[in-house]
């Protein structure tokens, strides 16, 4: 009954450090997404992967890279973290891109000092 | 560009009373509309979605929403609220390419005894 699993749940970084947020789904979904949630701004799409082997930019991709490692896993990398990237990050999945995000992970709360 | 407005930041409803959360959208073509709910510390859960057909859509947990094209609205309703419904609710709009949903800023629902 895992659904979408994100690791880590919390992380504190210093400016300039790098890290990778991990996401895995066990529902055999084709599409996966990364969002960030900031107070008063709703969710904003960073990157998405419509299917295994493809990725595309969303609304706020600058400063991030992604890898669709296989059908299950979709990682988000911050190469040189900046305080503006302090946020809560959510991974989501859906059976296809025509469904919109159906299942979300519980989020990674990231603070950059 | 597409956009979503949720005019109420907070709403307080008595347990057992009816609920209506407002959502207004701007989109140049036929919109695809979604409602999600987020409990504290958790990811979003899809409540319901409208793609086409019947403008009254039934969702999970006893929620429904009505698409009104003339008013550019997609309001969420529930006839009798339970304390467990206290959460934050997000409306989202997309078109072809649901990967690029635009989310509203959310409405926080408080339920009083």
Describe this protein's structure.
The complex is a heterodimer of chains A (113) and B (113). Chain A has 113 residues and is mainly beta. Chain A is 0% helix and 50% strand. Chain A contains no helices and eleven strands. Chain A has strands at residues 4-7, 10-13, 19-25, 31-37, 43-49, 56-57, 64-68, 74-78, 87-94, 103-104, 108-112. In chain A, the strands form two sheets. In chain A, strands 2, 4, 5, 6, 9, 10 and 11 form a seven-stranded mixed beta sheet that branches. In chain A, strands 1-3-8-7 form a four-stranded antiparallel beta sheet, with no helix packed on it. Chain A is globular, with a radius of gyration of 13 Å. Chain A starts with a strand and ends with a strand. The mean pLDDT of chain A is 92. By secondary structure, chain B is mostly beta strands. Chain B has strands spanning 3-5, 10-14, 19-21, 24-26, 32-38, 44-50, 56-58, 64-68, 73-78, 87-94, 102-103, 107-112. In chain B, strands 2, 5, 6, 10, 11 and 12 form a six-stranded mixed beta sheet that branches. Chain A binds chain B through residues 4, 31, 33, 40-45, 48, 50, 56, 58-59, 90, 92, 94, 97-107, and chain B through 4, 32, 34, 41-46, 49, 90, 92, 94, 97-106.
Helix/strand layout:
The complex is a heterodimer of chains A (113) and B (113).
Chain A: E1 4-7, E2 10-13, E3 19-25, E4 31-37, E5 43-49, E6 56-57, E7 64-68, E8 74-78, E9 87-94, E10 103-104, E11 108-112
Parallel strand pairs in A: 2-11
Antiparallel strand pairs in A: 1-3, 3-8, 4-5, 4-9, 5-6, 7-8, 9-10, 9-11
Chain B: E1 3-5, E2 10-14, E3 19-21, E4 24-26, E5 32-38, E6 44-50, E7 56-58, E8 64-68, E9 73-78, E10 87-94, E11 102-103, E12 107-112
Parallel strand pairs in B: 2-12
Antiparallel strand pairs in B: 1-4, 3-9, 5-6, 5-10, 7-8, 8-9, 10-11, 10-12
């Amino acid at each position: 009954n895992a659904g979408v699993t994100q690791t880590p749940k919390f992380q504190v970084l210093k400016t300039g450090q790098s890290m990778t947020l991990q996401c895995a789904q066990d529902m055999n979904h084709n599409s996966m997404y990364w969002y960030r949630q900031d107070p008063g701004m709703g969710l904003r799409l960073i990157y998405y992967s419509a299917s295994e082997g493809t990725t595309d930019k969303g609304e706020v991709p600058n400063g991030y890279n992604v890898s669709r490692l296989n059908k299950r896993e979709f990682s988000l990398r911050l190469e040189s973290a900046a305080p503006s990237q302090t946020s809560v990050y959510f991974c989501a999945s859906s059976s296809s891109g025509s469904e919109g995000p159906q299942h979300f992970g519980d989020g990674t709360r990231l603070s950059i000092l | 560009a597409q956009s979503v407005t949720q005019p109420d930041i907070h709403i307080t409803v008595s347990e057992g009373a009816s609920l209506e959360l407002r959502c207004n959208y701007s989109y140049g073509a036929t919109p695809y509309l979604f409602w999600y709910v987020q409990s504290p510390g958790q990811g979003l859960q899809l409540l319901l979605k409208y793609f086409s057909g019947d403008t009254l859509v039934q969702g999970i947990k006893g929620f429904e929403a009505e698409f009104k094209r003339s008013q550019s609205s997609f309001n969420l309703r529930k006839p009798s609220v339970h304390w467990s419904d206290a959460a934050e609710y997000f409306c989202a709009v997309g078109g072809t390419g649901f990967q690029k949903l635009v989310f509203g800023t959310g409405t926080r629902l408080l339920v009083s005894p």
